Amino acid sequence: MIAVPNYINPEEYLEIERQNPIRHEYRRGLVYAMAGGTDNHDRIAQNLLYLINSHLRNSPDCRFYSGNVKVNYQNEFYYYPDAFGTCDPRDRSDRYAKRYPKLIAEVLSSSTQTFDLGEKFTDYQKIDTLEEYILISQETQRVECRRLTGPDTWETEVYGEGDLIVLKSLNLELAIGELYLGMDP
């Protein structure tokens, strides 16, 4: 990520973002252009979206979104996760940003991995409704699930080749191999 070294307020960011074809993330006054992803990154994200959307298709309450919708916390940050789900009715009023996700997923890239594993997770932990944070590797069949198990207590479960991934927040189990269908070597 490369920041434009000029503080802007959240309102300015949102105005710029609505008029700009290039997506940007916002964190405490700094704006970061989103880098393009690889074909495998996109494939994993699409597979995840398909699997979870199929699971939620008859849910009257839950919605699942791709990386085109922002997650926001008190104007402190606006991020574009690769995928996230919300079952909170308060998230129905804003078409551009959601504030009450219960699951957030990121497909790891070499350029964003350190941030996704560290500071971004710290930021996401501020969201009271967040129950699971999923980190998916592009390099190998590896999924890290960080799950809220108590007040301010997060436990990590790692899934590998052949495993069944358990997403407790959505009451869903899926084979890890399903995430990696159609990958190019």
Automatic annotation (TrEMBL):
Pfam family, one: Uma2
An MF annotation (GO) of this entry: endonuclease activity
Swiss-Prot/TrEMBL keywords: Endonuclease, Hydrolase, Nuclease
Highest taxon of source: Bacteria
Putative restriction endonuclease domain: residues covered: 10-175
Name of this chain's protein: Uma2 family endonuclease
Organism expressing this protein natively: Laspinema olomoucense D3b
